[in-house]
Amino acid sequence: MNNRISGALRSPVAFSVAAGVVIGALFLLGTGADPVTAYGAVLTGALGADGIGSTLSTGTSVLGMALALAIPLRAGLFNMGGDGQLVLGGITAAVTGLYVPVPAPLAVVLALLAGMAAGAGYAALAALCENRLGVPLLVSSLLLSYPAVSLASYLARYPLKEPGSSLPQTRALGDGVALPAFGDSTVTVGLLLVLAAAGAYWFTDRRTALGYEIRMTGLNARFSAYAGIERRGLTLKLMSVSGALAGLVGAVGVLSFPYRFVDGSLTAPGYTWTGLTAALLSAAAPLGTVIASLFFAVLQVGGLAMERTTEVPRELTQVLQAIVIVFLAARLRFPSRLFRLFRKREAA
């Protein structure tokens, strides 16, 4: 147990987070703010009674997108088209909920499934571009995201626009066509769906042959090919699952308040890039992805409280995220050296 704790403290992830906190404190001191007060406002605003609901709501989308991007990343594949798959899932769920004439509970289920299918199909298209046309997945997924976002924007502004509204949004979904919420909060059953996806990811990663193949491909693609793992098929599978999760997040966003598709509401908060940051920070490990997603959700929600309390711009929390990733990418080994020095002194 002690070895695990010391190993976690020596890891590049722990050092990167600590470095981000320290450098963030220096930024706060430079602006004349008290770092203790500012960080306290972040924690209170995100985890206090008034902010925990917003944190869980934000965490639902952040964790969903983090899982969507972590699954292919585990195999060394970069899905950069999260925004496109997200909005396609959202607009498809909105159309299903509005125009499919079925009872409300069934409409919710169909909207979720339709959103997942739209995201999965579009992500699979990016995989086919690599498998069949030789376009790198990073490029194909990123470039395919733009027409998807534009298509959803067009639909929300013109053919599906709510009559008489000045906002680019669809009509509100019918009565009962919404995910059940917990009490009076904005937290919905979507959180449970995302947590179930995280559990399925963990089980697949740790307890199945497919999870082993994914990890081996991420560690050494050439070795996995020699071992008989068919990379093209694996790419198509992982991208389809990734897109389905992104589409699920979009559908959950539409089936939650304000119960409609609003142009830009799914992409403006930056869930895709925050999710990618969480996946990178955790090295796409299932449990680490959940923890990193919660960490960034706390920063995102707590930043607003920090801005109200200390008048420090909430953009500082985005700077902290960037610092953490920069230090992680640098792979600094200072903690390991320090721990080795301490061990030598203890031995002496």
Notes on the protein architecture:
The chain is mostly helical and 348 residues long. It is 74% helix and 0% strand. The chain is built from 15 helices and no strands. The two termini are 24 Å apart.
Number of strands: 0
Helix content: over 70%
Number of helices: 15
How large is the radius of gyration?
22 Å
Model regions low in confidence, pLDDT < 50 over at least 5 residues = 332-339
What does the overall shape look like?
A: globular
Q: Give a quick account of the main beta sheet: strands, pairing sense, barrel closure.
A: none
Euclidean distance between termini CA atoms: 24 Å
- In terms of structural class, how would the helical and strand content be classed? mainly alpha
What percent strand?
under 5%
What does the average pLDDT come to? 89
N to C succession of SSEs: HHHHHHHHHHHHHHH
In summary, what is this structure?
Helices cover 74% and strands 0% of the residues. It is an all-alpha fold.
What topology does this entry show?
Layout: H1 2-10, H2 12-30, H3 35-47, H4 52-73, H5 82-99, H6 104-133, H7 137-157, H8 190-207, H9 209-219, H10 221-226, H11 231-254, H12 271-281, H13 286-310, H14 315-330, H15 334-347
Helix pairs in contact: 2-14, 3-13, 4-8, 4-11, 4-12, 4-13, 5-6, 5-7, 5-11, 6-7, 6-11, 8-9, 12-13, 12-14, 13-14
What structural keywords apply?
348 residues, mainly alpha, globular
